[in-house]
Structure formats: C-alpha cells, structure tokens
Specification:
- Chain A: Belongs to the GcvH family.
- The complex is a heterotrimer of chains A (126), B (457) and C (483).
- By secondary structure, chain A is of the alpha+beta class.
- Chain A is 18% helix and 34% strand.
- Chain A has 4 helices and 9 strands, in the order βββαβββββααβα.
- Chain A has a 6-stranded antiparallel sheet with strand order 1-2-3-9-8-5.
- Chain B contains 15 helices and 15 strands.
- A 7-stranded mixed sheet of chain B has the order 2-8-7-6-5-3-4, sandwiched between helices.
- In chain B, helix 7 packs parallel to helix 13 and helix 8 packs across helix 9.
- Chain B is globular.
- Chain B starts with a helix and ends with a helix.
- Chain C has 483 residues and is an alpha/beta fold.
- Chain C contains 16 helices and 12 strands.
- In chain C, the strands form 3 sheets. Chain C has a 7-stranded mixed sheet, sandwiched between helices. Chain C has a 3-stranded antiparallel sheet with strand order 10-12-11, covered by helices on one side. Chain C has a two-stranded antiparallel ribbon with strand order 8-9.
- In chain C, strand 5, helix 10 and strand 6 form a beta-alpha-beta unit.
- Chain C starts with 21 loop residues before the first helix and ends with a helix.
- The chains are: A alpha+beta (126), B alpha/beta (457), C alpha/beta (483).
- Chains B and C meet through helix 2, helix 3, helix 4, helix 5 and helix 6 of B and helix 1, helix 2, helix 3, helix 4 and helix 5 of C.
Amino acid sequence: MKIQNDARYAKSDEWVRVEGGVAFVGVSDYAQGKLGDVVFVGEISVGSTLKAGDLLTSVESVKAASDVYTPVSGKVLEVNHEVTAKPELLNSDAFGAGWLAKIELSNPDELNSLMSATDYAEYRKE
Amino acid sequence: MQNIERNRFSFIPATGDEQQAMLQKIGLQFDDIVKCFAGNSCVEGGLNLPDGLTEDQMVEYWDTMMSRNSGPRKASLLGAGAYMHFIPAVVPHLASLPGFVTAYTPYQPEISQGTLQSLFEFQSFMVELTDMELANCSMYDGASSAAEAMLMAHRIKKADRVLVAATVNPNYLATVRTYLKPHGIAVDVVRMDGDGRVSMEDLQLKLSVSACSAVLVQSPNYLGIIEDLGAIGTAVHGHDALFVESFTEAMALGLLKYGVGTGADIVVGEGQSLGLSMSFGGPHLGVFATLKKYNRDFPGRIVGESIDTKGRQAFVMTLRAREQDIRREKATSNICSNHALNALTAAVYLGSVGESGFRALACENVAKLQKLISGLEATGHFTRVFKQSPVFNEAVLASSIAPEDMRSRLAGVPVFPPLALAPGVVPEVQGMPHTYLVCATEMLKNNILEQVLGALN
Amino acid sequence: MTLFEKSVAGRSAFSFGFEEDRAVAERYVPEFARAAVKSLPQVAELDLVRHFTNLATKNYGVDTGFYPLGSCTMKYNPKINERMAADPRLTVRHPLDNATDNQGILQMEFELKESLQEITGMDDFTLQPACGAHGELTGMLIIHAYMRDHDAKRTKVLIPDSAHGTNPASASMAGFQVVTVPSNERGGVDMDALDKLMDDTVAAIMLTNPNTVGLFEENITQIAELVHARGGLLYYDGANLNALMGLIRPGDLGFDVVHLNLHKTFATPHGGGGPGAAPVGVKKLLADYLPIPVVVCRDGQYALDENRPHTIGRMSGFYGNTAVLARAYVYIKMMGRDGLLATSRAAVINANYVKALLSPYFPPAYDRPVMHETVLSAKGYDKYGVTLLDIAKRLMDYGYHPPTIYFPHFPPYAEEVMMVEPTESESKETMDLFCDALIKISQEAKENPDLLLSAPHDTVVTRVNETYAARHLVTSHRDKKGT
C-alpha cells in the first residue's frame, strides 16, 4: 500500500495535500486497490462550493462503484481532465497524476481533524 | 396410483432409496431439518389443490380449455399497441434452441457467448433502426420503458415535472403515472390539436410555464398519426428538457425517421412487431436507446465487445456499476432480468427479413391501410377522421355501425375486430357517432380484405 | 464474427408475397421517411441458421448441464410447457380483443391465480409484473399507496443486509428511504436492531424467507407481530419459495404482500435473462390497490376487471406475460398438490446433501440445517493466492456453471461465499460428481494454484477482459465502424 507522507486522510479514504496555497484532493492507493481497475470518473463541476463531507464525485470499476467525498470545504477551482480521459491513472498513480480536484480551502483548520499519513497507514493496515 | 406417481416424479429424479441414502449422509431426518418451522403454521393436510395431471391428461385439459376461445384469426384490424405480423418459420425455430432458452443470465461470459453475442447484435439492430448511439439489451415492454425513460430524464435534469402528449397510448401514460407518482413528479398532458397530433401551441405553452425534465411523444401516435418529431425536438431543445420519442409499432422503424436526426435524447418503444407473437399481451419487448453522453444514466443491461486472454473477440455485460446488484438503492433502475430471449428473437427476425424486407413490409402496411380505408369509405358507412394527417398502419374512422353490430358482422371473417374508441376521444362526425381505431398489416391479404368489406357493406 | 460482419450485399433470407405497390408508401410521406439503412446484415437463410445454431452451442443451459446457482432455482424446464405455450390459440390472440372471445385464456389465468393464492396463502393476485424486480416494484408501490392513504409519515423501508440488490433498488424506485437491518450470528434478522429501527416512520420490512443464506427465519412470528403491532407491513420476496411449497405459506406467516418468480420456482425457462413473470399476491386489506386489470370470474364467465378504486394504476402495456404464465400454469397443474410438496422436499434434501459433502472443504457460513440452498465459504483459500472467482472459473473446465459467488455479502458472517442450490431436478449422481469436482479443485488450489488462476482453459473463450470492455466501450456494430 503506497502512502503519501505530506497528505492528510479522511476515514473514507480520500486524501488532501496543500501545494502553493491550493488543496489537491484524490483517493488513496488503498482505495484504488479495493476498487479494482477504474473505468470511469464522474463529472465534478468547477466553481461549486462544497462542505467537508459533501459528495465530490463517484468512481467506478467493473465490479464496484464508490462515492468520493471531499475531505475539506471550499470552492472547486480545477478538475483533472486527464483522469477523466484515462481513469487508469487513478490505479497507477493515485497520489500524483490521479488527483481529482483542486479546491480553494475556506477553512484550513479542517486539515487538523484529518488523519496523518502514519495514522492512516495504521488505520488501513491489513 | 402408481402410474400417476411415476409420471409426476419424472421431474424429480431422486428415488425413495436415494433420498434415504442422502438423509443418512446428512445425519438428519427430514422432519428434523424442517423443525425450524416448529411454532409456525404448517400447511394442515396439504395444499387444497387437485391431484397432478399426467402429460396426456394435461394436453386434453388444455385443449378443452383453449377451445373456449373464438376461432383462428388470420389478420387483425385491431392494433393499439399489439400487432399481428408475419413471422418466418426460421424465427421461432432459432429462438427455441435449448442453448438459448434454458440458459441463465450471462454473468459468466466464458460459457454464455451465445446469449451475449445475440444481445450485442440486437443492440446493433436497435441502434441502426432508432438512429441513436447506444441501446440496451431490452426492457419488459414499451410502456415500462417509457416510464423508465421519464425517471432517467428526472435523474439528469432534476425538474419535478414531465410532459406527455395526449396522443400517447393511454396505457403508456397510465404506466408513466404509476412509476412517477411516489416521487412527486408531476405529469402534465399536452393537448391534441385539430389534426389528431400533439398541439405545438400547447407544447410551447407548457414548456414555457415552468421547468420540465422530459417531453414524451409517440409516433405513429395512438390514433395512428405520424407526428412531426423534428419540429417537436426543436421546440423541446429550446428549453432544458430531454426529448423522448416512443413507438408502439416497431415496424414503423422500417420507414419513418427517428433518433438523432429528429433531436431525440432517448428513444423507447415496443418491439413486439419484430418477430414476436401477440400472445394476449406478453411477453413483449421493451426497446431503450439513448445517446453516449448518457451512458452512466440509462437503465437496463448492456453488452459490450471485448477480448479474452488470447485476444479473441468475446462479449461481456458492461457498465454494470449502474445496476442494482452493485449500486443497490442508487442504481439507475431495479431491473434485473429483462426480456433477453425476445431480444434474441427480434435479432433473428431482423436478420431474416433484412433491411430491404423490413422496409418493404413497412411499405406494404401503409398501402394495405390506404386500401382498407378506401374500401371502407366506399361502403358509405365509414369516413376517416383527421383526413389530412399522414398515418402508418392505423387510422381512426367514424362509422354509423355500432360496436356490437360490427362484431356480429365480422363474426364469420377470421380477423380481430377493430378497437371501438370511447366517445369524446376524437371529434364527432355527423351521422357517424361511433369511432374505431382500425389497423391493417401485411397479414390483411386481399382475399381477407374483400371478406371484411363484404361483411361491412 | 457478428451477423453484421457476415453480410453480403444482395443476399436475402426473406420470402413473402407482397400484394401492394411499394411506391404507394414511398410516395406517401416523404418528409417523414428515413433514409435506407445501409448497414443491416444481408444474409441467406442458411447463413442465419448456422450463425445462431452455432451461437447456441456456445451457451451453457439447463439442458446441457447443472446450474448450482443459489437463489436462481435453475430447475428443469419441462418441454410439455413449451408445447402448450406455443399453441396458436394462445399466441395468435390480441390482448384488447373482447373477453367473451378469449374465455380459454382467461380461464387459464384465473385458475393460475387461484392456485398461487392457495400455494402462498394470499387473498388476491396480479399477474401483471414481468419479472422479480418488476414484482417487487409493484408490491412496494402498493405499500406506498396504502401508506399514503393511511399514514403518510411512514417513508422508510427496512431491508436486511443479506437482501438481494433488487430489494433496496425497488424500495427506492417506489419512493421509500432504505434502512438496513443487520443479520445476527444465527443468520437471521438481528431482533434487537429491529426493535430499535421499527418505529412509526417505517412502512414495511422486506424479507426473503428462507433468506439468502438458505436459512429459515427463526423469529418470523415475532418479526411479524412486532412490525404489525407498530403499524408496518411485511413484504415477502418469493425468490426462495422452492423450499416451502406444501410445507409452509408466507400468507400464514403474516406477510401482507408477496411476489413470486415463475422463472424460478415454477420452471419457466430463463431464456438467457428473461422473459419471466412475477405475480404479486396481497392480503385483503391491499386488494383494492392492485394494478388493473385483474382477472375475475363471475357466474362462470371470466373477465378483466378494472374496478379497483385505489389501484396503483398500470405497470405495463397489457396484463402480464401470458405465454410465461401459461408455462407455470401447466407445471402447477401437472405437479398438483403432492408434486409441489415433493418438489420442495427434494430441493431441501438435495441442498443439505451437497452441504454435507462439501462442508469439510468449504465451511458453511452457518452451522445449521439449510433449506433449498447452502452458503459455503472459500475464505481459507486466499493463502494459496486463489480467490473464489478463480475457483468458479476452474469449475467451468470441469463442465459446470459456477454457483453464485460473492453473494450474499455481509461481513463478518458472509464473505467470499458461494451459494449452491441444486434444486429437485438434479440426481444424486449429478450432485456427487459436482461435489467431486469442487473437492478436486480445492486440492488443486493447494498443489497447483496456477490451474485456477488461468482458468477456464477448455471453454470457447477464456477469461473475458471486463476492464477493456468498459474502457473501450463498443456496444454496437456501429461503434466498431468508429462512426
């Protein structure tokens, strides 16, 4: 199971990483492993304002469908069109090229209530 | 008594001795196994049903019972959602092959390529005939497909209102209402105009008054009249709603334009005319086709082409994440089994008639209806209602002949008599208070047509 | 190759005596006429026959071999049913034709209705629903309409975690909010959880009995009393009725609405995924809500009655899948009272027998006698690097269709399980051979797991790439041409 050390994690397996004042959000490597080969990433509307825990999108494999919830509140600035075109990126590079959305944080304190990389690794230890 | 037992148990191979041996292996007697019922009611004294029949007794019983139906029919002047067409012998022959009939749902593609490929071919036929981008591998019937299309449109557009043309088959409208009622989605009916088609004026009005998710129109409509789907599509797309085209007579697909060329977002309908018997109403065949951009939103199963580990062409059910076993309460529909064998039958039928045969049959239907109308009008007892409006194989005629009289006159002719419409459905004609929806297909051969005209003269 | 890929311009399989001038129609409505479709296949009749006959051989069917599919009841489809259902006095009948001219068909439907009422202990039936999910939707719409009239705040439906996916999907389609009830360590509904969840916002509980792990719900009487006492209704998913005929009746257990699967319990063929039929039975209090029309008998005359003041409306264009109903009718008529009981009895014995043979290798989810199906776990095999899917695929090399896999799924009791339902149709030898095969595979898993991982080898196609299918979506011949 790959882990991104500088990211924070939600119990529902989403990660968030702040880079240049903007939050990148995606699903963890553990989550993509459970899903299997990802075949579809649903639409995310740019400009929408979300609260932490709101539905961001849904992701599909051949045998399962998973709802993805945003771990942080804010406005969606950008959507990763590469992963919509090539959903397999979510499998091969869940923390990198498989990012789903860039969010402008409205409440940076929320990051503190998410799990650290070590805590998440422990939580998802098999 | 022994004789009867031997026959009944032909469907249960286990002998008494074998069952004893099995119970020994299990280590329990049968009563022990079902003692979990203890405290609950068991059927006292057995079910109150007659003794079973042997096969020959069953044939006899069935024969006596079915002889209570009226005589054999060679053609039908009755349409209104079910149609009597010619079915080539090769169609039931291939559709009854045990490999297709006794097969399970193709969840294990390696041993279900027969079903999967036939369904892929059915989907291919439907895409071509409806001129849409993808088609599922069947629903139950046209009415429930129309209802599911409304629900799909609601999922996409979210407005709690749909418009349905008054000229849609009344049973389809009723089914749409049943499906939509618990969700609080309003069903507004768009009025009919003076030509027996959906009123463009009323459509524009109803589209403008508030948002709606979909507009459902049928062509040929319930009165047999061909709607101007292109014009309706343009009107619908002037507002943010989905345009849903429907048909009850699949043979019309051989001659009339549907689909992307007329602005359709979804095309649904009844495929019974494609090689299936009317069978007193079922099982028929729900057709559902849509655009690729809605490929996560549509209901029903769909088969895709793929490859196996050796790179060979292989078919498999795909886009499964929409379905009930994965999505449960968030599924696009609860549909599980569909009408797969009937979809296969339709594929065989279309392979048998071919495009040229299918178009030729559609043309024959049009010509037969025109001939029948001329003949009926010539008797002086009938006149066409909505004369200016083009029809396919059904039309409304007003008559001075009452329904009971119609039936008794036609009693000696091997045809299903036409549907008597309720008063007020269409405008009244002076001196001809009774109205009928009259159908003519390729089965209305000239000699039968002459008998009909002779009886109604 | 698909039929489309076998097309040769100019070939034809059609022979029909056209009497009219084609030009009449071509001239008639030019503005609405479509362009000629160029890409439909043109084949000769022999091409068509060979194409589909060969496709049929690529299919496994009940007529070919054993289907141990739990909850599907893949029993033998008697051929007498096919012969009766092909009778032109049934097939060449228009549904809107006068009832007085169709007394034979209506008699058949009415007698079927009465038989089903007797078998299930219910008061009235609709024969309209086309298959199980449609029946569930019909039943749940009836409950929804009833509650709307009597107690509109009841917007929830309780469904066990072991339920078939159509249950929550149907409840949702009927306008309800779904609340899941956990199962207990005995394999039944957790009564404490039920006690907490059953309140005055709950319209109904949907149950399958025996449930999806093949166990009879031990507390069914208490569940019925509790739910009724608190104002709710009980819905019965009849998928597993094959275990109960002549032994016990859902109506007597307290169920208010029942759906049956004629393509399971009553031997109508599965057809590769339908058509089936799913009559829905109700107790008197809900009879007025049935979809119309309902087949009735008055003074020896059969008719289709539309007089149901609170009807939910229509679920379809006509009255149900008559040709499927006819097959079930013949089956019930031939089995009779004693045959139906013998059927359920044999189904239950067979399932327990298979459980006894396989338990040492695939431990049962619950150590209790089962009804007509058994749920066995393959959890231990992952240490050989082998999953339940691999075991299932390897079974195909032995000539069997795999059992139901990964369902039901409600950890910790049911995980990596397969559901085996032999039905009464299978002989002792078939079951012995099937179990031998599974036992051999369990040994192969330890000694030669690659055989399983690369299975199936002996089928017409090997493992089909589902990811490829979804990522390169080709669902029609038109897609292949890249339009």
